Amino acid sequence: MAENKNTETPGQGKSTRRLVSLDAFRGFTVAGMIVVNSPASWEHVYPPLLHASWHGITPTDYVFPFFIFIVGISIALSYGKLKAAGVATGKVLGKTFRRAFLIFVIGIFLSLFPDFNFSEIRIPGVLQRIAIVFLVCAVLFWYTNWKQQAVVGAAALLLYWIAMVCIPVPGVGTGLLEPGKNLAAWVDSALVPGKMWQGTWDPEGVLSTVPAIASGISGMLAGRLIAATAMSQERKVIWLYIAGLCAFALGSIWGWGFPINKNLWTSSYVLYTSGLASMVLASLFFVIEVQGHAAWAKVGVVFGSNAIVAYVIGSILPDLLMPLNSWYVGSVVEGANWPQMASLLWALGICALCYILVYLLYRRKIFIKI
Questions:
Q1: Residue 143 backbone dihedrals phi, psi, to 5 degrees
Q2: Stretch 354-359: mean pLDDT, rounded?
Q3: Running DSSP on this structure, what letter comes out for residue 2?
Q4: Mind telling me which residue stretches traverse the membrane in this protein (predicted)?
Q5: Across the strands, what pairs with 137?
């Protein structure tokens, strides 16, 4: 996922200093993914740990765009280093396409696991979207400067908004933004083969991937700021906060007319979540890189150092533990005075088990990259 264990910024020569705050941010985000995806019972989940049913946002809706934002940062840092080193374009693009393809295939594998019923194959998905965003953003970064990237990101958000509210949808009308009754759903039904998450539409569908690319671009812009060698660390923190606050405010205001919606990945949702991500990164950067307090973030660093492995393990474990889960739900969750807490404890247990497995790799300095 555009992960580079040697995360020195361009211009630092042979320095191999890792950006611990980025590893921690990535790791805490992956841990969040595992927790919200692994309750013991979906009938007993605290509301903040569920996605918003449609318009609106919950803390769970932050996780996916945060990860895409982090992918963008990683692209800026690692590909900036490759540019500075004069690595041949053909070699870079070859590895880029290979990495995107492998991430996409892993996403398909996880959607089929454990039954591998190919008649029910779902092409869109979380890793599949990450693969597409990574590929587009990496190529864009290689061939353009930051101003051109910002223009592309802004154009993607504006054009998506105009398309969603202005283009008539057959049998639906113009400007409707209801589940299954909007332009993105119509495009999905026309172009997406196989099974879709919601039958006639998919939250990781074709058209909504366009603004998701803008989420990746926002991360690339933040990454460029972090990589600026002429700027002090303190000023980087300030500008990350300022940019984040402005994006968050603009997304909130835009949401009055184009609602914040994770399923549609609306333009307001992109700005809102990218703004929050920038401010979270600024906070982690300040505490860890500027103040030097990194010990507390060890859990995040361990997860973040093998993010793809942690995500795959977290996706597979619930299926492997299904017999135990059935017993736990019947014997513990259903009989508990606090069933939501019992359900959450299961999710935390899955996350802890993932951590143990990933920590074993971390101790042996094994970092699996795609």
A1: -105, -5
A2: 96
A3: -
A4: 24-42, 62-79, 100-119, 125-143, 150-171, 206-226, 238-257, 269-288, 300-321, 341-362
A5: none
3-state DSSP of 116-144: CCHHHCECCCHHHHHHHHHHHHHHHHHHC
**How many Å apart are CA 275 and CA 252, to the nearest integer?**
10
Q: Rounded distance, CA 136 to CA 97, Å?
A: 10
Residue 76: closest CA among 151, 154, 22: 22
At 34, list the tokens.
């595992």
- Mean pLDDT calculated for residue range 152-175: 96
Q: Which residues of 165-185 are buried (b: 16+ CB within 10 A; e: fewer)?
A: eeeebeeeeeeebeeeebbbb
Task: At 122, list the tokens.
Answer: 């779902």
CA distance 257 to 243: 22
Retrieve residue 205's tokens: 């569908």
Average pLDDT of every residue of the chain:
93
Q: Which of 63, 56, 55 is nearest to 37 (CA)?
A: 63
Alpha-carbon gap, residue 358 to 355, rounded angstroms: 5
Query: Nearest 5°: CA angle at 359, between 44 and 81?
Result: 110
Lowest-pLDDT range, 8-22, 76-90, 138-152? 8-22
At 264, list the tokens.
Answer: 């549609």
Tell me how far apart the alpha carbons of residues 28 and 94 are, in angstroms, rounded to a whole number. Answer: 30
Q: What are the φ/ψ torsions at residue 55 (nearest 5 degrees)?
A: -65, 150
With beta carbons less than 8 A apart as the criterion, state whether 202 and 123 touch.
no
pTM of the model: 0.93
Helix then strand then coil, % of the chain, to nearest 5: 65, 0, 30
The whole-number pLDDT of residue 119 equals: 86
Q: How far apart are CA 140 and CA 79, in angstroms?
A: 11
**Could you say which DSSP state residue 168 is in?**
E
Q: Quick one: tokens of 102?
A: 């492998």
